[in-house]
Amino acid sequence: MTEVETGREGGVLTITLNRPEVLNALTRETQKQLVGALKEARANDVRAVVLTGAGRGFCVGQDLTEFREGAGDISDRLRATYHPTVLAIRSLEKPVIAAVNGAAAGAGLSLACACDLRIAADSATFVPAFINIGLVPDSGGTYFISRLLGPARAFEWMSSGRRLSAAEAHAWGLVSEVVESDQLAARAAELAETYAQLPTRGVGMTKRLFDHAQDATLDEQLELEAQLQSAATKTEDFQEGVAAFLEKRDPRFSGR
Ligand code: T3D
User: Which of 139, 140, 186, 254 is deepest in the core (most CB within 10 A)?
Assistant: First the structure.
């Protein structure tokens, strides 16, 4: 048994945080294995990724038992463990779907929000737990959540520590879909498979463009769009998409 498990089904890689007895709290070892799994996700034949948790939790952030003897230098720990994980998700040029099966708290919430899409079980909860133990949001929590919810709502929520239900998270637009708990894995697999059939490089470049748009000027954004559109026209999937349209048939995208 490992702290992070991976499984392949066609072009879909599922990454499962696997410390169910503590709702998948993150230790240094879990982080190391998670970064390893995200490296595995870089393979060309992986075309969509699902991130989920084993048992009744998604991920409750830092394993607080590691703080028993004192926190040490947290900034170094964040740089060495959390930052590479978040950056690995954002730099993957393919969609990463968080299948939030239970509590997403602290850095586990940040991790879910670093993903490209979030779907949730109806039993999932979203807990900005940092403030409840006197910490500030980290692992990109302020970056992603202010963009997802707007700065006013993001501050109000993150500074309150209030536990949000899946239904509330859906109403706020934090998750795109809520399904019954026992349907979540199947729905995540179905959604990931749909993405795995799309022109993967086009999806990856779309992800890059939306990330860039957060802070770019219009001129800069137009320029990057032009560059990536040029790259997109050189893909096999562009050839296939146009051919299929002209031949009035469904396209068969290869991800190349
Ligand atoms: O550099 C750095 O490392 C700093 C980085 C910090 C980033 C952070 O993530 S700080 C935030 C850390 N996370 C938390 O503070 C969340 C703490 N957990 C909770 O508040 C609650 O567990 C939840 C509201 C998320 C869920 O509540 P509930 O009632 O569904 O479950 P529970 O009974 O509290 O938890 C179940 C078990 O998991 C329990 O163990 P037990 O009693 O059955 O032996 C509990 O102690 C354990 N657990 C839950 N969260 C953590 C944890 N163990 C270690 N670390 C945890 N974070």
Answer: 139
Is 131's C-beta closer than 6 angstroms to any atom of ligand 1?
no
Q: Work out the burial of residue 76: count CB atoms within 10 Å of its CB; fewer than 13 is exposed, 13-18 middle, 19 or more buried.
A: exposed
Distance of CA 5 to the CA centre of its chain: 16
Q: What is the pLDDT of residues 60-75, one digit of tens each?
A: 999 999 988 777 788 9
pTM score: 0.97
Tell how far the Cα of 24 is from the centroid of ligand 1, in angstroms.
9
Question: From ligand 1's centre to the CA of 7, what distance in Å?
Answer: 26
Ligand 1, closest atom to CA 102? 30
Quick: pLDDT tens for 229-251. 999 999 999 999 999 999 999 99
- Domain 200-246: give its CATH architecture: Orthogonal Bundle (1.10)
The number of the ligand 1 atom at minimal distance from the alpha carbon of 63 is 55
- Quote the CA–CA distance of 12 and 190 in Å, as a whole number: 10
Domain(s) labelled CATH 3.90.226.10 in the chain stretch across 4-196
